[in-house]
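We give this protein:

***
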Amino acid sequence: MKIALWILIFLTTFCIMEFMAWFTHKYIMHGFLWKLHKDHHKKDHGSWWERNDAFFIFYAVVSILCFVSWDSFGFWPGLPIGLGIFAYGVTYFLVHDIFIHQRFKMFRNANNWYAKGIRRAHKIHHKHLGQKDGECFGMLLPPLKYFKK
């Protein structure tokens, strides 16, 4: 029974992270921390790294703190919560940084309906170079209107 509960917590955490990605992107990245996120929309330097890359550190720290709370303080939900945050982070990195932005040249020929929808939605978001007026959504489940055939 405990394993089923861990799986439920892991999956719930993973799904909540999609909401957190939307919320963070809309209200923090396009809000008071725009200075960190701006170079993701309009690169103003020659480096491969972006100031925007600093955002992953926050969620990595939260995930690590969950692992520490599980290991050091016996907070058993800390393990599935930490793993859910970590799994979402890995998925986000694969979809956003590798697949969409091609920071590593992989998955270039993916052309199924989901790949096209994700690319279309992200392209619409990136057509707005400023802080305001950009449509914000989660990374894995953008609005259905982008998944037309």
User: Anything to note?
Assistant: Residues 2-25+53-146 form one domain. The chain has one domain: 2-25+53-146. DSSP finds five helices and no strands in the chain. The helical segments are 2-32, 34-41, 55-73, 78-100, 113-126.
